[in-house]
Specification:
mainly alpha
Length: about 200
Amino acid sequence: MSTSRLEAFSDGVLAIIITVMVLELHVPEQDHFSDLWHDSGVGLLTYVLSFVYIGIYWNNHHHMFQIADYIDGSVLWANLHLLFWLSLYPFTTAWLDETKVALTPTIVYGVNLLAAAVAYYVLQLRMMRIPVTGPRLRDVVGNDLKGKLSPFIYLLGILLAFVEPWLGLIPFVVVALMWLVPDRRVERYLAAHQELTD
């Protein structure tokens, strides 16, 4: 089956997730910059972090599906599994904000990040089983060092949260920064295989 409906649905869900997250932000009660930080500072920072993560997943999802001609039912379910974990970002982000980065919400946020990473990996594996797409995707992904390192860094963040919740956020930020570095693997592959885009 074609990938167009899956891509359109996923784009819509991710747009809604971002919208829900921004609606969770609290407007400062007064009109000074100090009020912005005091009333909304943590919320803005956690929103930015979660927004970056959603952007990274949207970008990687888009790139992965550029090399797919078709998908099967297992890919549809794996994609829904990924969207489930991503749809929890507004909840875990809001909890992190409301509690000013307390222990349990920080751990739950880390588990949410880890679960989304695992779900993306499962989606990738399902796509690698599709006859034409699989070899292409394996070519593009290669050894995928960032993909293999990320879950371990999330686990480090979860463990650091037990020491001090704010420390737990540092590895989460590191993973986001790591994935923000442009990854040109798909563009290079598509440029080398022009027939896929024609």
